[in-house]
Amino acid sequence: MLVFAMKRLTPDQLEAARDALVDGYRNWAALKQLAAFALDINLEAKVGKGPLDDVAFDLLELTEAKGWTEMLLRDAAARNPGNEMLGDIAAAHGLAPAPFTGPAAAALDAGFQARVIQASGLESAGRWRQQMIRCERRVCQIRSGGEPIGTGFLVGPRLVMSNWHVFESAPGSGQLGEPKNYAACFDFRAAEGQAPADPGIEVPADPVADYLDTSHKLELDYALLQLAHDIGNEPMPDGTKRGWLALGTRQFELPKESCIVLQHPAGRTLEVAAGTVTGWLQGHEQAIYEHTAETDRGSSGSPCFASGWTLLGLHHRTGPKANPSNRAIATSAIVERLRAKGRLGLLPAQG
After folding, report:
1. Residues 307-328: pLDDT tens digits?
2. Considering the entire predicted model, what is its pTM?
3. Could you give the dihedral angle defined by the CA atoms of residues 74, 76, 42 and 128, in that order, rounded to the nearest 10 degrees?
């Protein structure tokens, strides 16, 4: 199982998390189900039985040692949304809602999540979440002057992709800002309206490098920004590399293949939204999808995944009022453009 980047709990935080778990899951069987769904583990085999306070504490000690605490607390709060103590714990650590929550997701039928996980080809919901976390740690805020302006993601050890318009020097200027004016921040965690629980790791752009490739906002709307160092090669707490995402070469299956977006909407903590791809944007077939996943200002440049966490789209924008669907650039079109320009070698891998 993969480790995520949430900071270790202090003794007081550990006690508060234990109390919240006991308040939200008031018997051993309920806690066992949570461990199975959130972590894909057998509670009895990994922790054992006993008084609920002790079992909850031992479970947290296990997740702290393994780096699984964020998964546990995020799922615990999402599965018991009416529990105030769990909600407070999630907010205190800047944990976003789990997938398939929020206003847009409420419109999805009850079987949507199960179908997404089944279609992914992964063995269980726990494995699906592990793959989600592998992708999450490669997604970043794009910042200018310390302020969040969009979302991006690693496509190489030090190479970030986002929208061309995210790097526009001023809205409507038609000119890119200087690369040295931007930075990428990974692992940022903050509940809305609260001080960051984790300020994240900010990596500036390479001060002497230009954009490695771009396509104007009226075309494929992407830019490749080189960072100052290889954060993708740096180890996570479990010893594995952070890694990077491979641009998918296939297309979403139309109509209505699931679309999962990892994003920093409105500068908030990393969030997950799910919807469906409804078709090609008229006049932009093979290049721009329309999708229903919920986004916000600051979501521009977010990666859009199929159910098995294959990267197939670059979230682009929301359409005008006459056609307000969300739009995403097909990664297959980006790969073909890079190939035609002889620049495909910029990407370590395509998927």
Report:
1. 889 999 999 987 555 556 899 9
2. 0.80
3. -40
